Amino acid sequence: PAKIFCRGYYTGISKRIKKGGRRMKKALSEVTHFLLLCLLVSACTIDYDVDIPSSSINKLVLSACLETESPIICKFYTCKSNDKYDPAKEVNVTLKEDGQIIYQGIINQGELKLDYLPKAGKKYTILAQSDGFMEISAETKIPPLLTCKPGFDQEKSMVTLSDFSEKHNGNSLWITASSLHEQDITVQYQELYSYNRLIDNVNREEGSYVNNNIAITGFYKSFIRIKKTNVPLLDELQFVPFYEQKVSEKMTGIEIDIINASNEYDQYCRTYYQALSIPSSGDLSGMFFQPSTVYSNVNNGLGIFAGRSVTKYLFSITNQSDNKQ
Description:
- It is a single chain.
- This protein is of the alpha+beta class and 325 residues long.
- The protein contains 2 helices and 19 strands.
- It has helices at residues 2-43, 263-276, and strands at 59-67, 72-81, 84-87, 91-97, 100-107, 111-114, 123-129, 136-141, 149-153, 158-162, 172-181, 185-188, 191-193, 204-211, 214-221, 224-226, 236-242, 251-261, 302-316.
- The strands form 3 sheets. Strands 1, 2, 3, 6, 11, 12, 16, 18 and 19 form a 9-stranded mixed beta sheet that branches. The protein has a 6-stranded antiparallel beta sheet with strand order 9-10-17-13-15-14, with no helix packed on it.
- The protein is elongated.
């Protein structure tokens, strides 16, 4: 009996030792995984300082957006280093509309202001050359005006857009909203609450809006974008514009801008927004974030030459005492 007891006693000790060893091994494994995760997070600090490639240095930079019912403004800069842009001097510019020259000459101080209103449906081409730089060129076409049936429910603070025209022109649609105040003050809404499967999620963020029996989860930061492939499917769009800041001047109305965007305008604004949307240092998604390249259609140079048409709808506000929305 003593041998049996001793054998059972030491066998029990052996089993407890093995079991404890397995627990220790599992604990060490979990600690190792945690330390590895901490190492990966610390190695992926969000600090992007992307240099301009050497091939982009010493080039002309063009910035222009042609819009219906607005004079033409084209700005030129020189890029001689990674972070230095100066207004270009003595730039020889040729601007054409459907192949016909509408301006040809030399500009100074890097800016061309032309008292000429671009037209929807027209194609515009620009050529520019300055001493020491390669000649640049670009082209764009201004889409037709896109109209719709607008509506605004002041009690619900909801905007409704329906019966869109020009839905099949092959262009993307951008929508922004602004509050209008006395003293000619305009403030763009930073949050547009809506749920519609046709809206692009490039700028969608989490958040909830609850007011007057309306509950909407998710908002779009600063703008709503409808991809060109989804525009023909768009029958009605509803959204609630909102911002949290207060404006001392009394609110008088709301402005809704419907932008029918050329491909150049659409790609530039989308990629520019993505380039600015760098995750904060506390956001783990930054571990997988890659800085994007901003779209440019300027041959032998940098920048953008784009066209767009804008339709504006204004709604008056009555008995508005709360300027938060």
